[in-house]
Amino acid sequence: MNLRAPSISTHIPLIILYLIPPLATASFILYYGVDVPYHDQWILPNLFEKFKTGTLQFIDLFNLHNYHRLVFPKLIFLSLGLTSDWNIYAELICSFLLAILTFLCLYQLSKLTNPAQQDNLFHLTNLLTSLVFFSWIQYQNWLWGFQVAIFLINFCTIFACLLLSYPKFLSTKWQYIGSAILCGIASFSSAQGLASWLALIPCVLGLEGNLTQKRKRLFVWILLFLISVYLYFLGYQPDEALKNDAFKNNPDLAQNPTLFLIHFLFNIIASPLIGSLQWSWILGLIILCYFFYLLYELLIKNPHLYSLTFPWISIGLFGLLSSVLIAKGRYYLGSDYAILQGSRFTTHTLLLFVAIFQLSLIWVRFKLSALDLLKNQVINTVLTYGVLVGIVGILTILRGEYAVIQATDLSFFLKSGQTCLTLIDYLEDSPFLNTSVDSCLVRIYPDASFLRQEVKKLKNLQLRTFAETVPFVSDPNLKYGYLHPLPNNEPLVIRRKMPMSLSGWAILPDSQQQPNLIFLSYNNQKSFFANAYITVARPDIAELLKSKSYTRAGWQIVFSGESLPVGENKIKAWVYDPKRQQFIQLNGEISVTVKPKKKP
Question: Has the keyword Membrane been applied to this entry (predicted)?
């Protein structure tokens, strides 16, 4: 088995192999990313406004958001938002660039811990590191600009490890100071950042110096950690309403919270590789046990290897401690949540995998060099390592396929939200649009009233673009779709609280990009009281119009009479044509009479 360093002729293929994961992820972000703020990002217009009016104070940056102090991410959001017209792609690109820098730090650390041995085993391990590190299973973080904080924390922690492990780069004093600054930045970027102080203790102990110097450094390091914790928890009063409700509604959770927490933790650890609700916790337990086994082999049995292993021990501990913090904060949602909805929890956890890969490489090298192995034993050892690497790689790719399915759904609803945000001046303050789970406004922020309020701030700041004068076109000769008539074409009579269902189909002729939404209006209103998603399979339309683009051109909606005025109403359906910047009426109208609420 040839373990020698690759020849010059293999450098170009190697570079290409290393580039595949980050380039694939960049393409993933560009394809599925959408320029629309959603959920937590809507806290930012208030910051933009305060900055523009000169009233921004440090407390605005320091204030708690959920469980987190987002001081440094907020500074990033301010700089990116105000210089890009709050284009969300700026945040997505920032996250990706931080990931690139973090991987370069990991690669440099791998070179430091494998001196003069950049051979096939080295590249196999680091190619796997690249594949896992840029895994699409993190799709929620790749596609949500608000998660800059996660990538910033990872970068600060890994860069601090590199500083503490690179004696020729800086003096010991500045290695120590630089890494402490980075941990401080991580600590006030999100709660998980506090774990960086504890995780980096092995790196701090690995700095050159006598026993007294090491003790002093450790004492100051722990003191800095305690100061960070104290500052972090000043006035710390997170909203525990969801957690309290979960305990009330789930007796098993109330009786066995520790069991739920452990189950959640194991599921988080396994989620980058498998999505089985039955087996994930077992794989998570196996991964954790293997990590501790490596620590036993490399630290207890072979302490002379500490100088090579301490950065990876720190990185592994950070991944583990971050996962513990996440589990502590979210376990009440149920252990399955870590698998089904936990994509955003995986970015820190993946560092545990990276540490395991690199520690395994050091262990395999030690076995090959320390033991007088026969040739076939060497081959078997390397083959076993290669097979395990292959299995992890295949599982990562398979999870990537699952991520594509999830990202497709997420991107669809984000694009729908983007359309609604652009057209928000045409969306009424109706019960459907304000409260329905199918409202395109509620999809991007659950409180539609708050969303409208923040949009006003954006308009005043001239951030983002909103449609102002969109013509309404009613032409029966235009074939954009149809609002299906009611059974027997009879007018419908309902009361305010009664639900009703409408359906139809909609397309954009001669356009590659098909619409995601239709809007409903009543009478002659130049505004809309409801929206419906165009997701229903309509193979008949695709066959009739001879285009596969129309395969899912159908839509259906259920709403109550509360969104309509009392009396007779003519309901119309519309589709927005972004190319022509027009609302086009679909053929057909429905007559609905809403009766007033019954008197008690």
Answer: yes
Would residue 74 count as lying in a domain?
yes
pLDDT at 217 over 90: yes
Q: How many domains does the chain have?
A: 2
CA distances from 231 to 153, 217, 225, 235, 318 (A): 18, 21, 10, 9, 21
Tokens of 57: 């104070």
Torsion of CA 18, 20, 22, 26, to 10 degrees: 160
Q: Could you tell me which residues come within 8 angstroms of residue 527 by beta carbon, excluding any fewer than 6 positions away? A: 426, 427, 428, 521
Asked whether residue 2 is assigned to any structural domain, the reply reads no
Using the Cα atoms of residue 199, residue 142, residue 420 and residue 530 in order, give the sign of their dihedral: negative
Residue 240 lies in a domain: yes
DSSP structural state of residue 56 = -
* Alpha carbon distance 559, 436 (integer Å): 9
Q: What is the 3-state secondary structure (H, E, C) of 514-551?
A: CCCEEEEEECCCCCECEEEEEEECCHHHHHHCCCHHHC
What is the tens place of the pLDDT at every residue in 82-136? 999 999 999 999 999 999 999 999 999 999 988 766 678 889 899 999 999 999 9
CA distance 313 to 179: 16
Helix (H, G, I), strand (E, B) or coil at 570: strand
Residue ending a domain, among 383, 412, 441, is 412
pTM value is 0.91
8 A C-beta contact, residue 593 and residue 491: yes
Instruction: Name the DSSP class of 556.
Output: E
β partners of residue 595: 495
User: In CATH, what number is assigned to the domain containing residue 586?
Assistant: 2.60.40.10
Interval 39-78: pLDDT, tens:
999 999 999 999 999 999 999 999 988 888 999 999 999 9
Residues 419 and 202: their CA atoms lie apart, in Å, by 50
Closest CA to 197 of 235, 227, 175: 227
Whether residues 164 and 313 share a domain: the answer is yes
